[in-house]
TrEMBL record:
It comes from Enterococcus avium ATCC 14025. The active site is at Y49. The keyword NADP applies. This is NADP-dependent oxidoreductase domain-containing protein. Keywords: NADP, Oxidoreductase. The record marks K74 as: Lowers pKa of active site Tyr. Residues 260-280 are annotated as: Disordered. Residues 18-258 form the NADP-dependent oxidoreductase domain. Belongs to the aldo/keto reductase family. Residues 271-280 have a biased composition (Basic and acidic residues). Pfam families: Aldo_ket_red. InterPro entries: AKR, Aldo/ket_reductase_CS, NAD(P)_OxRdtase_dom_sf, NADP_OxRdtase_dom. The keyword Manganese does not apply.
Length: 280
């Protein structure tokens, strides 16, 4: 599996399995087992997905050693303070049946993220997290975070797919040496990106599926991808993207189909951020 080097010297497998919306324990365990068999070692969850415990069980049941796994989780917006962030982290560790995380992210730039970051830095300095990062942070959020941060985020996990390519933010992240990680890399099954005629044509030329072409495009942009599927055949397909290369011309053709069209979750939606901070 291709690894990317992060700004703190740690490495991350460039492709992993996302488990958002997997709400059934058996589905989750089956898909993690299928993924491990296909060579996935990187798994992306979050406290708000309410499936960390199942992921923990699935990984504990496998014979893959902990040091060969890469586990990401995220602190939810309702955990607002330094102490709440520390407590939420330990809760995630317990559920995931591990004593450290490879990557821990602030899920959204909801109010108070500078203080939450201080807690993340302490957990990082204590060796409980190998790398710390953010998610759904745009330029102004990062600028504000960096006014107090002592440790620079290693990763920013943001919505990215061919209809929402995040070209500007990608450039900004590159300038800061913060790795760009794509959520919703396949458009979340919401847009019709999988039927896009340009992508269909490129897929036919390589004898690959459109999903594989999209994942390959992300990889060649040096973006980390965590496609989600609970189907063994798609899980296998989504990691089978290291045996072909898109040409510069194909990369340019894909760059041109950008619609700058967000699929969900706007980090500038103050109402959403405020509501998501509720402790109920
Ligand atoms: P995704 O783009 O990975 O799309 C998943 C959907 O694509 C599946 O449900 C399936 O319908 C389809 N699919 C998957 N493989 C396919 C294939 N080979 N062929 C055809 N269709 C296929 O969307 P996602 O799950 O929302 O994003 C991936 C991961 O990113 C999540 O599971 C989660 O871990 C993370 N995520 C993070 C945030 C955040 O705010 N940080 C938000 C959303 C998702």
């Amino acid at each position: 599996m291709e690894q990317l080097k992060l700004n703190n010297g740690q490495t991350i497998p460039q492709l992993g399995l996302g488990v958002f919306k997997v709400q059934d324990a058996d589905d989750l365990k089956r898909s993690v087992a299928a993924a491990l068999k296909e060579g996935y070692r990187h798994f992306d969850t979050a406290a708000i997905y309410h499936n960390e415990a199942w992921l923990g069980e699935a990984l504990a049941e496998s014979d893959v050693k902990r040091e060969d796994l890469y586990i990401t989780s995220k602190v939810w917006n309702s955990n607002r303070t330094y102490d709440e962030t520390i407590a939420a982290f330990h809760e995630s560790l317990k559920k995931l049946q591990t004593d450290y995380l490879d990557l821990y992210l602030i899920h959204w730039p909801s109010d108070g993220y500078n203080e939450k970051w201080r807690a993340m830095e302490d957990l990082y300095n204590d060796g409980l997290i190998k790398s710390i990062g953010v998610s759904n942070f745009e330029k102004p959020h990062l600028e504000k975070l960096l006014t107090t941060a002592k440790v620079k985020p290693a990763v920013d996990q943001i919505e990215t797919h061919p209809y929402f390519q995040q070209k500007e933010l990608n450039k900004y992240l590159r300038s800061l040496d913060i790795a760009h990680e794509a959520w919703g890399p396949l458009g979340q099954g919401k847009s019709n990106v999988l039927d896009d005629p340009t992508l269909v044509k490129i897929a036919e030329a390589h004898n690959k599926s459109v999903a594989q072409v999209i994942l390959r495009w992300h990889l060649q942009r040096e973006i980390i991808v965590i496609p989600k599927s609970v189907h063994a055949e798609r899980i296998a397909q989504n990691i089978n993207v290291f045996d072909f290369t898109l040409t510069d011309e194909e990369m340019s053709l894909i760059a041109a189909i950008d619609k700058n069209q967000r699929g969900s979750g706007d980090p500038n939606d103050e109402e959403f951020l405020k509501n998501s901070m509720s402790r109920d």
